[in-house]
Design a protein that fits this description.
heterodimer; A: mainly alpha; Rna Polymerase Sigma Factor, Chain: A; Arc Repressor Mutant, subunit A; 2 domains; 9 helices; B: alpha+beta; five-stranded mixed beta sheet; 7 helices; 15 strands
Chain lengths: 195, 247
C-alpha cells in the first residue's frame, strides 16, 4: 500500500503502526518529521556534521528495526532522541571517530569559516555552545534537549528515561556549572547582564 | 525560568546548524535495498561452516570452544580457570565505575526505583543508602546502585547491579582470575579485571567497558546480581549474603 499525499497527514500513531508492519512508505514521513531534531542533537553532541549524519541515519535504521517493540501510543520524538543520544554517546567513545577526524584533517578540506561574516548573535550562540561543551556528557545532554532543542521537561524526561523531578534537579545542577564556566571563561557572553 | 535560563534559552536558538541532510532518503535506500548474499560470501560462509564442523569433530578443540561459564544472563569466557578451592584474596585499586557515571542513563532515586521495578531492591548492611541509583528499561528494568568511597569521593566503593533475566546480555572476555564459589545456596563466580565487559541493550547498542575491579556474580534464577568492588572475595561474599530488602 502506498502512502498518498492525503495519507501523509495521517496521525503519527497510525503511521507508526503501519511502519511496524513493515510498510517502509509509512516510515518516510515520520523520518522527515523528526530528522532535523535528531540530526541537530547528534551535531550538538558530536560537533561534526558528518558524524552527526552517520549517527542520525543509524538512529532511524535502529528505530525501524525495533518499531514492533515501540508503543505506538507514545510520541516518537523522545524515543528517537533517546536512541540518537545513546548512539552519539557510544560514538564519542569509539576509536573510529578519532580516525575519521584525523583522516579529514589530512584531506586539507578544513571548512573555511569567516567569523567576520557571521553576525554577532550567531557568535554568541557559538560561544555558548563552547561553554556547554566544557560540561560532562550528561550535563551537555540535558542542556541541549531543554534549551537548544526546546523540549519540555516531560519530553526531556522521556528521552533520558528519568522522572520529571530528576530532570529538574539535574538541570539545575548543570545550569549552575554552566553559569560558573561562563563567568570564568566566557564573561563576554553575558556582558552587561548579571550572570 | 530565571533571567539566566531565559538568556541561555534565547541565545541557544540562534546557533547556526549545518543544513539538515536528506537523512530519510538515505535510510529509505538502505531499507529498500534487497538483502542478498553474494556468491563469494556464500562460498566463504560455506568454507567457515565446513571448518567449524571439522574443528568440532576434534574433542580438545570442541572443549576449548565451548568453555565458558554462564551465570544468569552473564556469559564469561575465561582466560584461565583457577581449579583451587582456596579463596583468593585480591585487592585492586578501585572499581571501574567512575568513568561511566557521567554517561549512565536512567538516574533516579531509591524511592522511584522501588516503584519502577517488580523485584525487591536489596541493600548491603552498613553501607547506608547508595549515592547514585540508576534504573534502565531494557525489556526488564535493570537497577544499578553505586556507593562512593567516603574517603576518596571520586572513586567508587561498591556497585551492585540487579539484572532481570532476558534483559541485558553481558559477555566478559578473559578475566584474569576466575573462581567458582557460592553465595548462600546459589552458584557464583568471582572475576578479577582487567578485562573487557560487553553489554548489549534493547537497541542492540554495544557498550564495552574495561573492568578493573573485582566482580562477584550470582543468580537466584530470576535476577542476576553483579557486585563490583575493590574488596576481597570473602568480603564481597559476606556483603552478598547479607543483602537486605529496603525497609
Amino acid at each position: 500500500m502506498k502512502i498518498t499525499s492525503a495519507e501523509a497527514y495521517l496521525d503519527e500513531a497510525t503511521l507508526i503502526r503501519r511502519a511496524a508492519h513493515g510498510e517502509a512508505a509509512a516510515w518516510e514521513p515520520l523520518m522527515q518529521a523528526h530528522q532535523q531534531a535528531v540530526f541537530r542533537l547528534c551535531y550538538l553532541l558530536l560537533g561534526d556534521p558528518d558524524d552527526a549524519e552517520d549517527v542520525a541515519q543509524e538512529t532511524f535504521l535502529r528505530a525501524w528495526n525495533h518499531l514492533k517493540r515501540f508503543d505506538s501510543t507514545r510520541p516518537l520524538r523522545p524515543w528517537l532522541l533517546s536512541i540518537a543520544s545513546n548512539l552519539a554517546s557510544n560514538r564519542r567513545r569509539s576509536a573510529g571517530r578519532y580516525f575519521s577526524a584525523l583522516q579529514r584533517a589530512f584531506q586539507n578540506e578544513i571548512p573555511q569559516t569567516n567569523l567576520e561574516e557571521k553576525n554577532l548573535q550567531s557568535n554568541d550562540a557559538n560561544e555558548l555552545w563552547k561553554a556547554v561543551q566544557s560540561l560532562n556528557f550528561q550535563d551537555q545532554q540535558i542542556i541541549y534537549l531543554r534549551f537548544f532543542l526546546d523540549l519540555s521537561v516531560n519530553e526531556t524526561a522521556q528521552v533520558l528515561e528519568i522522572a520529571e523531578g530528576t530532570v529538574k534537579s539535574r538541570l539545575n545542577r548543570a545550569i549552575e556549572k554552566l553559569r560558573k564556566i561562563i563567568q570564568q571563561d566566557f564573561p563576554i557572553l553575558f556582558e552587561g547582564h548579571e550572570v | 525560568m530565571n533571567e539566566f535560563e531565559q538568556k541561555i534559552s534565547s541565545i541557544s536558538k540562534r546557533l547556526d546548524y549545518p543544513s539538515t541532510p536528506n537523512i530519510s532518503a538515505s535510510v529509505m535506500k538502505k531499507i529498500r535495498q534487497p538483502r542478498f548474499i553474494s556468491r563469494r560470501l556464500t562460498w566463504s560462509l560455506t568454507l567457515i561452516l565446513i571448518l567449524l564442523v571439522s574443528l568440532f569433530a576434534i574433542p580438545p578443540v570442541r572443549a576449548a570452544i565451548l568453555e565458558f561459564l554462564q551465570i544468569g544472563i552473564v556469559r564469561i569466557f575465561p582466560q584461565q580457570i583457577e581449579p583451587t578451592q582456596e579463596p583468593i584474596s585480591t585487592i585492586t585499586p578501585a572499581p571501574s565505575m567512575i568513568p561511566l557515571l557521567d554517561s549512565i542513563f536512567g538516574e533516579t532515586t531509591l524511592d522511584e526505583a522501588k516503584q519502577q521495578v517488580n523485584y525487591p531492591i536489596l541493600l548491603p548492611q552498613n553501607f547506608g543508602e547508595p549515592d547514585y541509583v540508576f534504573v534502565q528499561d531494557a525489556e526488564g528494568y535493570m537497577t544499578i546502585l553505586v556507593w562512593m568511597n567516603p574517603i576518596q569521593p571520586q572513586s567508587v566503593e561498591l556497585s551492585l547491579h540487579f539484572i532481570p533475566n532476558e534483559s541485558w546480555a553481558i559477555k566478559k572476555m578473559g578475566p584474569r582470575v576466575l573462581q567458582e564459589t557460592m553465595v548462600n545456596e546459589y552458584k557464583a563466580v568471582w572475576a578479577v579485571g582487567p578485562y573487557p565487559l560487553i553489554l548489549y541493550n534493547r537497541y542492540e547498542i554495544e557498550f564495552t567497558r574495561l573492568i578493573e575491579g573485582n566482580v562477584l556474580i550470582w543468580t537466584d534464577g530470576t535476577i542476576t546480581y553483579r557486585l563490583e568492588t575493590h574488596l576481597s572475595m570473602e568480603e564481597a561474599i559476606l556483603i552478598a549474603e547479607n543483602l537486605q530488602p529496603i525497609p
